[in-house]
Design goal:
The chain is an all-alpha fold and about 375 residues long. The chain has 17 helices and four strands. The protein starts with a helix and ends with a helix.
């Protein structure tokens, strides 16, 4: 029954991202048009670049996929945006699978499939995510690759399956070729890596269990090979590594610490009060989360903190989710322009929706338990 409901959620998410894609939004934003120009040039010259230096510089993976879409469907705005629809819709699947993995392997005594269903539903119906799934910006690939990278890495470390570790490396390596915000993900992936290494060395697992260091070496090797093209490009062109981020960084301000405090307040406040006021990113400064989802997110965050340590043991899955949320605030909070900035904070969407799903199921369980006690 849960699987059938999830398929319904996936279809709903696809519909909300595809409906009237030819008409909404009207026209192309300048950044989208620049992507289209680069894609058409790549098609004409057969020169599909790793990095396109124009327009403050953009990683080439997303633009090259857009070029493929233009080749298949013609030079149309919706063909550029169809790539975002695909990434956005598949992210719903990634969040569902990852939430199940986090809960089934972690310390939470909740029904993993139902929490995953709630989390994926919140993502499928989130205006924040739907909006960026309908415009041709490469940032929409960050939630997709983040969710699948963590999912496959956790599954690979838990089971020792080579295929999971290979997919984790592919997801991480490709993610590094999407949008600058993904560069914070290695700090998140370090949590399960260090955690499972600690468990392996501490417990001295017997020979019939998989070798955790071997599994990690495979993951790191695949990540290195997949990310090598963009890494080599930045090694030869270091000026393109930071791009526009250096222009808007808090470190270019007179008081970086105060700017960091202000940006954190604005970024966290966008969930509950004032969201991004850029009409390209949001609707009339509305909060990034629906009020109900915002409350459930807060409950889920409190539940996570309460269960961070279970039986005085720090759980890897709990800490991974917390660190994921914290580190993916940094692409927004380390800048001082246009705050709150829904686009730079796009990497926060999966952990926020997972926490909202966790909070929702915790609330349901609490209410059910209260009614049962009244009988």
């Amino acid at each position: 029954a849960v699987l059938i409901l999830f398929l319904g959620v996936l279809v709903l998410g696809a519909f909300l991202r595809l409906y009237s894609l030819r008409e909404i939004p009207l026209g192309l934003y300048p950044d989208e048009a620049m992507n289209g120009n680069n894609a058409l040039e790549a098609i004409a010259t057969r020169d599909f670049k790793i990095f396109y230096p124009e327009n403050n510089g953009r990683e080439g993976l997303f633009i090259n996929i857009q070029a493929l879409s233009l080749m298949l469907f013609g030079n149309e705005p919706w063909a550029l945006r169809l790539v975002s629809v695909l990434f956005g819709t598949l992210t719903i699947l990634g969040v569902y699978l990852l939430t199940k993995e986090l809960l089934e392997a972690g310390s939470w005594k909740l029904e993993a499939k139902r929490v995953a269903l709630l989390s994926s539903f919140f993502l499928a119906t989130s205006f924040w995510h739907i909006n960026f799934s309908r415009i041709g910006f490469r940032a929409i690939a960050v939630p997709f690759f983040s969710a699948f990278a963590i999912y496959f890495l956790l599954k690979g470390l838990r089971t020792g399956k080579i295929s999971s570790l290979v997919f984790a490396g592919i997801s991480t390596g490709l993610g590094l070729q999407t949008y600058i915000a993904f560069r914070f993900m290695p700090f998140v992936l370090a949590i399960p890596i260090l955690g499972y290494l600690w468990i392996w060395f501490k417990n001295k697992e017997p020979q019939n269990k998989h070798c955790t260091p071997c599994a990690l070496l495979l993951f790191i090797f695949v990540t290195f090979v997949v990310a090598l093209p963009i890494g080599w490009y930045f090694l030869e062109n270091p000026q393109d590594f930071l791009g526009r981020s250096g222009q808007v960084s808090i470190f270019s301000a007179g008081s970086p610490f105060m700017e960091f405090i202000k940006s954190n307040i604005a970024t966290l406040g966008m969930f509950f009060s004032n969201g991004d006021c850029n009409w390209r990113h949001n609707l009339a400064c509305q909060p990034q989360l629906h009020p109900i989802v915002a409350v459930l997110f807060a409950l889920g965050f409190l539940y996570l903190l309460r269960n961070l340590f279970k039986n005085r043991i720090l759980k890897i899955e709990n800490l991974t989710l917390l660190v994921w949320f914290i580190f993916m605030t940094l692409p927004a909070t380390l800048t001082r322009e246009g705050l709150p900035h829904a686009l730079r904070a796009i990497g926060m969407i999966p952990p926020v929706m997972i926490l909202a799903g966790l909070g929702g199921w915790w609330l349901i369980n609490t209410i059910v338990a209260w009614f049962e006690n009244q009988k």
